[in-house]
Amino acid sequence: MLEKILIFGICVLVLISTPHAFALEGTHRAELKNARLVNAFGETTPENINTNQQVQISADITNKQDKNQDFVCIVQVLDQNNVPVKLAWIKASLQPQQTFSSAISWVTDRPGTYTAQIFLWDSIKNADALATKLDLKIIVS
């Protein structure tokens, strides 16, 4: 019994001393949160906007890994019929544990209810999700 406790203790010490032994995979490699609309000064605006009002669709991206991560942040805006009316992306790289606020400009001359979908992928070509997608409802009057 003492031998089993000793082996268990050694295993615990090894795991504690090597926190990077397990690599993050899938949608745990980055965090995508705080979807919002912002103005040209980076100030948060309500999700109810006027036609021809330019806004930025923004979200906070955090690299949860201990290595650099290239990424593509994709924003797709759908109208009330789920028809895409805008598709744009930015490509960048984050250092370990770095946070970045992305922003994609958008303006419409048509009132209605829209949904902005924000995706975080490793690249356009691979389309491997780094984080869970976010949705943002936008009402245009």
Give keywords.
five-stranded mixed beta sheet, mainly beta, 1 helix, elongated, 141 residues, four-stranded antiparallel beta sheet, 48% strand
Helix and strand topology:
Blueprint: H1 2-17, E1 30-38, E2 44-45, E3 48-49, E4 55-63, E5 69-78, E6 84-94, E7 99-106, E8 112-121, E9 134-140
Parallel strand pairs: 3-9
Antiparallel strand pairs: 1-2, 1-4, 4-7, 5-6, 5-8, 8-9
Number of helices: 1
Q: How would you spell out the order of helices and strands?
A: HEEEEEEEEE
Shape: elongated
> In which range does the helix fraction lie?
10-25%
Distance between the termini: 72 Å
Poorly predicted residue ranges: 12-22
Largest sheet, described in full? 5 strands, mixed
Per CATH, the architecture is Distorted Sandwich
Beta-strand content: over 45%
What is the CATH class name?
Mainly Beta
Average predicted confidence as pLDDT: 88
Overall number of structural domains: 1
The secondary-structure class comes to: mainly beta
Strand order across the biggest sheet? 3-9-8-5-6
Radius of gyration (Å):
21 Å
For CATH, the homologous superfamily is named as: abc- transporter (atp binding component) like domain
Number of strands: 9
CATH topology: Coagulation Factor XIII, Chain A, domain 1
